[in-house]
Amino acid sequence: MKIVNASLYRYDLSLRRSLAGYGAGRSGESSCVRSGLILRVAAEDGVEGVGEIAPLPGASGESIDAAQLFATQWMEWICGKGVSCARPVLDHVLSGMSWRGPGILPPSVQFGVDCAVLDLLARGEGMTVAETLSQAHRSCVAVNALLAGPLDDVGDVAGRLVQKGYSAFKLKVGRGDRESELRAAFRVREAIGPGARLRLDANRAWHFEEAVDIAAGFSEAHIDYIEEPLRDASRLPEFVRATGVTIALDESLSDPRLDWRALAFCAGAFVVKPTLLGGLDALAALDALVAEGSIPLVISSCFESGVGLACLAQWAASLRSADTHAGLGTGAWFGEDAAAFTPMAAGGHIVVEDAAAIRPDFTRMREVARVC
């Protein structure tokens, strides 16, 4: 299939909640606006594929302006070239992708490029991206609900979400005092009942001693894990030995100062954010590492629009690692969306066929580049 046209669009979307404390808000960009790029590629027969490039300020190494430059250079390189893949893609990542350019792309750009070309190839075959990635794909993806807002309210919010069908919850911690956060965790546990999953995310908020102190209290709330509890992530193995609490790796997977493989033995889950880690290479490497074990890959959003969420849901459905609840419950944060409609998790799940039907609403964007 030959790509004969490529275009790039920018969106600047209002949010219902601030992203301060979630990576954004530390680089001059308003934390109540999410900016990103939608890449569209088209083949000779008129089939189109789309992907999202949305570096997260404060978390991504590249700015949106840099991402736009790299994406435009890739568009100039790819136009007129044929693209193909060996299926299932996850088994042939290193050898089966003909659309890799001559240089290294920033992670958010590589993610968007891989999404767009896979979408193009899948649609050309009348398939979903999940089917293209893996023969053993799942038909739907369970999603954990993200509990944000005042700690005094999270128990009530969790109770309402249980009624909507959610069975896994992620509570942000490390932003209040010890007693308030312990109280919030127990309120959530009481609201969701003993059978639901409760995950905590500290975003590297604590020094070692305070993390050890608070972990003992959290463990009594029967949590799945604490995600990135330590400011000094090199001490994570020591934390696990001292507390017996399961941890999950997130920031450590993209931290250039760390060899995450040296920490993997002490992790109970890998929180995988393709916008930060890059495209299929990173996903396939992690999936192959844990495929024969029981450690789940928790595919998670960096607050992409509905276009990116749709792609992430299909990637999550294709994984060979242990099935788990994905971190894709961020669509409700947007006051408006780059997608014609958002793949919301009805009943705590995103249906793959519904995600595959998501298309951008280009009326909410402006074109910033076009080639061919």
Q: What would a concise description of this structure say?
A:
The protein is built from 13 helices and 13 strands. It is α/β, with parallel strands linked by helices and 372 residues long.
Please explain how this structure is put together:
There is one protein chain. By secondary structure, the chain is an alpha/beta fold. Helices cover 33% and strands 19% of the residues. It has 13 helices and 13 strands. The strands form three sheets. Strands 5-6-7-8-9-10-11 form a seven-stranded parallel beta sheet. Strands 3-2-1-13 form a four-stranded antiparallel beta sheet. Helix 8 (236-243) links the parallel strand 8 and strand 9. It is globular and about 60 Å long.
Question: What key phrases describe this protein's structure?
Answer:
13 strands, alpha/beta, 372 residues, four-stranded antiparallel beta sheet, 19% strand, single chain, globular
The end-to-end distance, rounded to whole angstroms, is 15 Å
* Strand line-up of the largest beta sheet: 5-6-7-8-9-10-11
The parts where pLDDT drops under 50 for at least 5 residues are none
The number of helical segments is 13
**What proportion of the residues form beta strands (DSSP E)?**
15-25%
- What does the overall shape look like? globular
Query: What is the string of SSEs from the N terminus onward?
Result: EEEHHHHEEHEHEHEHEHEHHEHEHE
The pLDDT mean sits at 90
Structural class: alpha/beta
